[in-house]
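Notes from hallway chat w/ T.B., transcribed later so I don't forget. T.B. wanted the structure written out for a chain they're using in a teaching module, and asked if we could keep both sequence and structure tokens in one place. Agreed to drop them here.
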Amino acid sequence: MPEETTEVISQYQVYLAGIIFLITYAIIVSDKIHRTIAALLGGLAMIVFGVVDQETAFDSVDWNVIFLLTGMMIIAYILSETGVFQWVAIQAVRLGKRDPFKILIYLSIFTAIASAALDNVTVVVLMAPVTLFVAASLGLSPIPFLIAEVMASNIGGAATLIGDPPNILIGSAANIDFMTFALNMTPPVIISLIVFVPMAYFIFRKDLAKKGGAIPQVSEVEQLITNPTLLKKSLIVVAGVLTGFNLHSAAGIEPATSALLGATILMLWARWDPHDALKHVEWDTLLFFVGLFITVEAIVHVGIIEMLAAQVLAFTGGSLSLTTILVLWLSALASGIVDNIPYTATMLPLIKDLIAGGMTSPHDPNPLWWALALGADFGGNLTLVGASANVVVVSMAARAGYKITFWGFFRYSALVTLMSVLVATGYMWIRYL
């Protein structure tokens, strides 16, 4: 009799976990309720209804991810106060010599590079206001510039562990160090950016047909580098943090420790008020991750992920090549439909189960992780809701009076996404399979 009760409770937990998970996902995708509230409600529902206990739920939170993001947010905020992003944007305008396409490419390439060094959401938040000013000076709509920048940001952010939120999740879950991640992810990113340049001309040429007006004068955006001393200190700290990331394996120091140490040293060195710095930490994003970790842990706890892994293996016949390509394209498509952060968080335990089942390559132990990262990062370009950076840019454009619609974004993004995923497919096949 006790065994029957246990079996009934087990089935109840499985179905309940699945239902709560799907409802949570649907709410996040619909954007009817703020995604942070949706994720927290989902995680708390898993605890309240007995799918997981509180201890298991809280233990599932990856604090390496949370504190890594916290440290980098503080560093990025203080760096932004130096005016360096505005300065670079104006240099791009000058180099472009009133040619809108050249300016678009310079801004996009800078955004891509910056997104590899900082997280891409922070970069687009800093670049959007400057881009709005530049486009207005040229007498052009800022929409093509903003869309090009956010697509370049999602591509460039794929190169490093800290460039895109899905990468942070993957690096922590798979225990991949900064340098290993960069060495494996940078080649397809560079190729995709090279191909992006002529493709950008093709898709934006009509919008950029008009020649620009006067090149903005420095006086119009005065206070470009507002604090050279702070800029030097910030860049030294950023270099130190990146060095810490690279020494992760040798020194045994987790990336979160390096990021938090860097943020603390910068606040101390710059005599920055911690209350001000902490006000600019995106607490809603961090709590969103907390809710996601608990929600995903619940479906892992009841065995749903294990069942899905078995289904994937059955479908691919245990073929590493087929499974890797399937993960890549499925991730790209799914990340275009839902935000790539919750999608990646859901896939982490599935990939772990597949690898535990023998899905590794003699050339590299991590092809499934690279497939997930490339698919989630590049696929995030497909639609407005595919990546957090997209949502942020659309919101900032709307506040400035420029509406970017779902299909207005898609008509630019579809070809770029297809191109980058094809590049990733060829890269994966040649290097790992």
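Follow-up for T.B.: The longest helix spans residues 2-30. Might be a good example for the class.
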